[in-house]
Every structure is written in structure tokens, then in C-alpha cells.
Specification:
11 helices, about 30% helix, alpha+beta, about 375 residues, Chorismate synthase, AroC fold
Amino acid sequence: MLNKINFLTAGESHGKGLLGIIDGIPAGLNINKDYLDFHLSRRQKGFGRGGRMKIEKDSAEIYTGIRSGYTIGSPIGLIIKNLDWDNWKKIMEISDDRINQKKITLPRPGHADLAGIMKYGFDDIRNVIERSSARETTMRVALGSICRKLLEKFNIHVASYVTQIHNITDDIVDHKINVNKINNESDKSPIRVLNRNIEDKMIETIKKAQKNGDTVGGQFKILVSGCPYGLGSYSTWDKKINAKLSEAICSINAIKGISFGRDNSSNSFGSELHDEIEYRSKKFIRTNNNAGGIEGGMSNAQNIIINAVMKPLSTLTTPLKSVDIKTKEVKLAHKERTDSCAVPAAAIVAESMTCIVIADTILDKFGGDSIEELSQHFKTAQF
């Protein structure tokens, strides 16, 4: 449901690398490799990550669309090489010689395996595993970082922090911290929590899962500050900014739910939930933000607050029962290298997807083929 920005990723988890193209970024935006690599490094962190992150040193190589450090208005092309490719060349060979390759025939419950082979008619689950893997989100972070840079030009900041791991919940409701400072704090934590008092409990829960060959999920918040009135629209279903954000974030692997604003708002009476309107110093203001910065499918100049739920990852080192797709025998599911917890990393991916959507709505509302032109138009924004 993007209107002004288009992007596409390609690549397999254990292939040569990942490709990404993003189009619609105005000319004149300063982009450098170090900025992209910094956010890629944030995705690689988090307690509970598996052995793959010890191999990869994700770095984006800019191929097209940038000259002398600035975008030139044409599609931007990126490549991220998979260092693990050296260990997978024989299995992931592009040539048609697959005589000696062992096929994977035991689908993992909860993963794309069974539905994928049924859809595409494969007899080898490896074909599904390679593209359905969350390795693909690496490129989304790189492309999203370009959009993040655009937003920062207009003092719009996107941040995230973890609020729950398994059944351990952050009990601080209002952290009273500026959105543009949240990542500085949450990135200091291996779990990306702001409440350091519960950090050890969360780590112990992940360790317990690791010991048992299990995985854990959790929840995180994404916050966006600096949005003016009127990003998105109530006029048609596909223009609503909450619908666009929901689509983007729910496209991330293992995300199973999303809400906006106050947690458990369905438990409240309307009189308790809705944010009363006041007028001071020639501005409309709210004393609360239970709506999470969105009303009627549009931004209302408050911080956008998104709550996302991530299920435990589907690959278990102590696997569940499955059925061999070839022999139809009941066996244990396939074991693949995995993380025991990826909630902190998923929050970084969600930040990036949020950046893409917000940048798209900014361009849709204000327009401009260059940063200079967009900046002139943005001066009309209402806050």
C-alpha cells in the first residue's frame, strides 16, 4: 500500500547475498555506507541470537542511485554479501547439478515449510527455507535506513524497545524519555529493554529455552515522533496510515499481532480511553495519547505508538513431531540453525519498515523530486 516509494528485496538465506532496490527517494539526500552499516549492526545484536550472527558482518554495498554521497533521484541498488556462502556453495549451487544433494522432507510445525511445498510443488523443503528465512529482513533494514535518513531531515525519529520476553513483562508504563533518545538507551541492553531491573529475568528465560532446545517470543513498542497532522487519510481503506503500518510490520517473520496506542484498550470504557482535546497557545493539545498518535487513519501530530507481538521462532533444536512428505512416516521435524530469541532484532526490522511507511506518507502528502523542494513543501506542515 505504498504510493510514492517502491522497494524489492531478493536473495536466499545461504545464497551469495541479498539484493535490494528502492525507488522514489528524492534527489539530494546525503547517504553514506557507514550510516547503513550502523543500523545493520543493530539488527545483528540481542541476547538469544544463534551462530549465524557470529559469521556475518553485514555491510551494504551501494551499487546505484547515489553519486558523491547524495541521491540522484534514480533507483538505489544495494548488495549485502552472505559470508556464510562459503560454507553452503555445494548445497546452494546455481547450476542444475543436484544429483548428490540431500533433500529436506520433514516440515517444521509453525514454519512456511509445508504450506510452501504444497503451494509450489517442491519435493525439497530447502527451496522454501531459503527465501522464507528472516535473513531477508537484513536488506529491509538497509533500505529502511535510507528512509530513516530522509525522516531525520524533518526531525522525525523512529525508535523501539522490548516490553516482554515470554511471560516476563516490563512493568514501567511511562518511561518519560524522548523518542529520539530511546534507541540510545535500549541499544545498551542485550534485550533492548528500558527497564534494566527485569533484564536479568528475561536473559534467564532465554537461557532456559536454549538449554531445552526451545524458543521464546515477546512484544516490543515502536514510537515515531515529529509527524505532522494528516499523514494517511480516512477517505479510502488503503490510505489509512494504521493500515499501512500494520501491513508493513505484520510482513515481518513471526509477527502475529499489532495494536496502536494504549495496551489493552478494549478493557477500557470510551470515557476512560479517548484523549480529550484542549486549545492552548494557538495549538490543539491532548493531555494523553491513548490513541497512539492515529485517529481515523491519520496522524494527529502526537507520537505514533505501535505495539507488536512476536511468536516463538518455529525452528526448535528439540524438534516437534512432523510427517515426512515423501514416505508419510511420522518423524521429528527438520532441525535448522536458529535463534532462541529474536525479539530485539525484530524490533529493529520493525523500525525500518515503519521508516519506509512514514517516508512514503510524507512524500505522498507534501511531494517533491528533490530534498530542497520537499523541504519547501514541508514548511506547510501543521503540528
